[in-house]
Amino acid sequence: MTTASLTAFAQAKKAEKPEKVRDVVCGIMVDKDPALSVKHNGDTYYFCSKTDAEKFKKEPEKYRKKK
Description:
elongated; alpha+beta; two-stranded antiparallel ribbon
């Protein structure tokens, strides 16, 4: 395999694994899923469930400190 082939392969593998971020409500690592995200004061927060997203929406300042 050439260097170019290895680089392309590595980039393709990296693209398969979405970046993980912490759900500030429950603390677990989650994928950046736009369907489970909330924008607040210019920041985007990602969650493991709609329940956590709703909890954040009700009391964002309680959870923002955990980011």
